[in-house]
Amino acid sequence: MKFIIFTLSAYLVDETYLLAAEAGMPQLDPKYWFSQGFWLIITFVMLYILVAKLFIPKIKNNIDDRERKIKDDLEKAKSYKENSEIKNKEYEQVIEKSKKEISKMIYDTRKKLEKDIQNKKQVIEKQINDEIKKTENEIKILKQNSLSSIEKISEELTSKIVHEITGEQLNQSSVKAMVSEVTKKNFNKIIS
Amino acid sequence: MTQFKVYKIGPEIKFGNIDLSFTNSSLFMIISAAIICLFLYFSTKERKIIPGKLQLISEMLFNFIAKMISDTAGSKAKPYFPFIFSLFVFVLICNMVGMLPYSFTVTSHIIVTLIMALFIFFAVTVIGFLKHGFKYLSIFVPSGVPVVLLPLITVIEIISYLSRPVSLSVRLFANMMAGHTMLKVFGGFVISLGLLGGWLPLSFSVALTGLEILVAFLQAYVFAILTCIYLNDALNLHH
Question: Do A27 and B86 count as a contact with CB atoms less than 8 A apart?
């Protein structure tokens, strides 16, 4: 087969250019067929070796690296997210706990304050009561005192007035009895 | 048609009776391969977690081809990923370099595409036989076909299998050549119609250039995906 092609092409090359460029298509001129095939094979084999051994592994490595990196990053992001969720939960728990504590504290303080207020109120009321009582007593004493002094003054006044008007000296005891009777009547009216 | 002409650059290299001289075709193959290598070198030089523009392009290319292979040929085709990758990128860059004015389109030569397609064809066949032994021949016998039709179907399947390298290579070669020829024709119209009438073909030429860039990408994609499909047939016997 090869021999036939070879002899044919050699014949065509040596003889006139049967299918030469001038006749039409240079593609059908077999003069450089072997040359083209030869250089095609050399070029393509070299290209193939370079591509297969050098460039494709590089590109592939790079793409794989990127995919790995993306995967790693995604995993990392996932773990970070999980961590942050855990932390968030903890934080919320802490907040919840402290909220409870605070409300308890508020409750306790309020209770304590109320108790204190109650106590103080009682003490103050007691003091007030005492004061009132004391004052009432004082008033009572003062009343009695004033009553007796009023009687005395009235007796004197009465005896003096009677003496001035009539010129008579009244009996001390009878004046006293009269005055005390009147005062008792009127005093009760005034006081109450 | 001079744009498709192959000529010798530098000294003549003869191996026995065979001419292996360095030609403009070889030059543009090497330029394409060098562009690919330079691009891949610079795009993989800095390996950042957040990729730069070049790095992003190379990674998109990688993922694009990886997805194409896993979609069409499954996970078993992983060892052939570097081959499909180089094939796709090589065909793509050769097509794209061919779009530059005064350049040479390597893939517009039937011999180049045929060698690639034949290599794929033989490699796929060998892989199929290595993986499945003679059971691989069951690829020619689709299941669920009436017995009466079996001989006919089998013959058709064999023909379609054998025509794979031809269709694969001719598709790429014809697309590239037709596109460039069309561009040339419209370019010629621009010159011949001159300043007055040349605007219409010029606008066509601009539109066609866009279309051709699309075709250049599409044909590289088709070439690679068909390789994947053939590989899938060899790796996973569906019938």
Answer: no
**Residue A92, both tokens:** 């919320």
Distance between B142 CA and the closest CA of chain A, angstroms: 32
Token duo for residue A100: 């409870």
Please give the tally of structural domains in chain B: 1
Q: What is the pLDDT of residues A27-56, one digit of tens each?
A: 787 778 888 899 999 999 999 999 999 999
Number of domains forming the structure of chain A: 1
The region of weakest confidence among A15-19, A25-29, A56-60 is: A15-19
- Give the pLDDT band of residue A152 (cuts 50, 70, 90): confident
Helix (H, G, I), strand (E, B) or coil at A1: coil
Mutation to test the B interface, candidates A43, A48, A54, A74, most B Cβ within 10 Å: A43
Report, as an integer, the average pLDDT of A1-30: 55
> Mutating which of B3, B81, B106, B111 best tests the A interface, going by the most A Cβ atoms within 10 A?
B111
Parent domain of A141 = 2-168
Domain that holds residue B221: 2-235
Q: Are B127 and B221 in contact (CB under 8 A)?
A: no
| Residue ranges of B 180-239 with Cβ closer than 8 A to chain A | none
Q: Across the interface, do A39 and B29 touch by the CB < 8 Å criterion?
A: yes
Residue of A nearest to B1 (CA): A25
B142 touches B153 (CB < 8 A): yes
CA distances from A171 to A55, A167, A168, B44 (A): 153, 13, 10, 148
Which residues, 6+ apart, have CB-to-CB distance to A184 below 8 Å? none
Between CA B1 and CA A11 the distance in angstroms is 24
Do B11 and A22 contact (CB within 8 A), yes or no? no
